[in-house]
Write a structure and sequence with these properties.
Helix content is about 90%, strand content about 0%. By secondary structure, the protein is mainly alpha-helical. The chain has one domain.
Amino acid sequence: MRLLADSNQYLATIVTLLGRLQARGDVSDAARVLQGTRAVIDAHLRAVTQVLRANLDRWSR
């Protein structure tokens, strides 16, 4: 359950960062926001991968 909570937290952060990017529309700030967003997306993908692996391990027993 902790992995799913982490995943949801990452998704909330991604939405916030993308909303900030849309609201500002500042090109100079966009690169920084996108870089931060990419880091959060990568962390989210790692969390989702862990959830999938745990489920596959459990189901393959």
